Amino acid sequence: MQTLPASAFSSNDEAAITRPLDLEEQEKRTGIQRREENVAIEEFYEIEETVAQIQQRQFKRIALQFPDEMLSDSVAVYLALGSRLKDAGYSDCNLFVLADTSYGSCCTDEVAAQHINADVVIHYGHACLSA
After folding, report:
1. CA 69 to CA 105: how far, in whole Å?
2. Residue range 6-15, pLDDT digits in tens
3. 112-124 in b/e burial notation, b at 16+ Cβ within 10 A?
4. Mean pLDDT of the chain
5. Is the pLDDT assigned to residue 98 strictly greater than 80?
């Protein structure tokens, strides 16, 4: 059996998984501000405002996208939003965390959102809004 050479357009798939991530360097390079430990998830990620927008626009399938620098907060944000939505009587919705960086942390992952048939993408961090 012949082994095919690696594509010139992509790196080894294992390299993408095992690559160390220097969050401080990325924060300086991208300008993305990470949450300080003493700042509550609800405040930093504007949970109440997000719940109000979801209810007002009646979104049912909600994609939450985080840049690498903020991904460690994704579970807490998911839980906080789910809890607040349920408390508000708005439990007929699904939240999804998009944890696969597309081109860069600032790029909205519209393809992943389409795969889950999302009504909206809530993109945390800086967004370049390129089309």
Report:
1. 8
2. 555 455 556 5
3. bbeeeebbebbbb
4. 78
5. yes
Identify the bridge partners of residue 106 per DSSP, sorted by sequence position.
none
Residues 47 and 39 sit within 8 Å (Cβ to Cβ) = no
Query: Buried (b) or exposed (e) across 31-50, using 16+ Cβ within 10 A?
Result: ebebbeeeeeebebbebeeb
Measured CA to CA, the distance from residue 91 to residue 14 in angstroms comes to 39
Q: State yes or no: pLDDT of 75 exceeds 50.
A: yes
**CB 67 within 8 Å of CB 125:** yes
User: DSSP readout, the chain?
Assistant: -PPPPPPTTS--HHHHHH----HHHHHHHH-PPPPPTTS-HHHHTTHHHHHHHHHHHT-SEEEEE--GGGGGGHHHHHHHHHHHHHHTT--S-EEEEE----SSTTS--HHHHHHTT-SEEEE-S------
Mean pLDDT of the 81-89 span: 94
pLDDT band, residue 30 (cuts 50/70/90)? very low
